[in-house]
């Protein structure tokens, strides 16, 4: 029954499902491994590496092999950086409870579907921070993308990073002589691990977004209000003068010049030494 179910899974998942078995051994487990991703491309490509082992045991009475589904499968999940450990623990617990409740039943497809539903659930957003802006992620309000190297970046941050990197490459190519341009590294890389970005990584945000200039960022939130700054400076200047008059504040201008040696400082020092008899005129 195990072989038939594996064939059905291969017809469903195709090359995404990797099946490993040792044909040289009569009693050998079947290993099914697959990285499960969201079904919709519009969703984040955060995935989970799942491995299901279909164990086989030899019976000492009749030397026949007991195998799945008589023996429950073993499920191994490799946690990705974008998933919270507590959520992964809940998923592992739910899978184990489902296996125990459905012993001696073909449940491989159901297990993969449980993982698929988890990947596409509301918990599918990174628990780390964006390496560009160092801000967190929110699956409901902030669009982000998962690179093939399993690092996560806000979509707008990724667009700006790609544009900036491309502009820097163009600048270097324009500055280097023709016979040296081949030495310029023109490969776009992950800002975290420096792994070259794949075509799929760039397609994550769409070709149209990649060609946009930096105007995609709301620069209004970064504009500096000079009038407000000048008014605040004048307000603080009054406080500064009042504190300085009371002797409770160090004058930064005088402090910066305290150890500054100038011609005037040398003359004052010479006069002081001469006055105290350390210098004699010839």
Automatic annotation (TrEMBL):
A GO molecular-function descriptor: zinc ion binding
**Keyword Ligase belongs to the record:** no
Every RING-type domain range: 130-194
What GO biological process terms does the UniProt entry carry, in alphabetical order?
Answer: protein ubiquitination
A Pfam family of the record is RWD
- Keywords recorded for this protein, A-Z: Metal-binding, Zinc, Zinc-finger
Q: What is this protein called?
A: RING-type domain-containing protein
């Amino acid at each position: 029954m195990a072989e038939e179910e594996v064939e059905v899974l291969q017809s469903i998942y195709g090359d995404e499902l990797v099946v490993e078995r040792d044909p040289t051994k009569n009693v050998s487990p079947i290993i099914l491994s697959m990285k499960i991703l969201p079904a919709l491309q519009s969703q984040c490509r955060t995935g989970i590496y799942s491995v299901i082992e279909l164990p086989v045991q030899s019976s000492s009475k009749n030397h026949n092999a007991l195998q799945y589904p008589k023996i429950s499968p073993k499920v191994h999940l490799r946690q990705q950086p974008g998933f919270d450990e507590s959520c992964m623990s809940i998923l592992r617990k739910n899978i184990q409870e489902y296996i125990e409740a459905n012993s001696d039943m073909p449940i491989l497809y159901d297990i993969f579907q449980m993982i698929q539903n988890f990947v596409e659930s509301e918990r599918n957003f990174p628990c780390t921070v964006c390496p560009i802006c160092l801000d967190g992620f929110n699956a409901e309000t902030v669009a982000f993308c998962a690179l093939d190297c399993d690092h996560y970046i806000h979509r707008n941050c990724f667009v700006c990073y790609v544009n900036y990197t491309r502009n820097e490459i163009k600048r270097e190519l324009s500055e280097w002589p023709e016979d040296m341009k081949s030495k310029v590294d023109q490969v776009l890389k992950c800002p975290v691990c420096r792994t070259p970005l794949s075509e799929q990584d760039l397609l994550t945000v769409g070709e149209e977004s990649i060609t946009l200039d930096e105007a995609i960022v709301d620069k209004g939130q970064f504009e500096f209000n000079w009038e407000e700054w000048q008014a605040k400076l004048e307000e603080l200047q009054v406080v500064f003068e009042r504190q300085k008059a009371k002797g409770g504040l160090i004058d930064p201008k005088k402090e910066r010049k305290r150890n500054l040696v100038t011609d005037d400082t040398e003359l004052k020092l010479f006069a002081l030494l001469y006055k105290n008899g350390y210098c004699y005129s010839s």
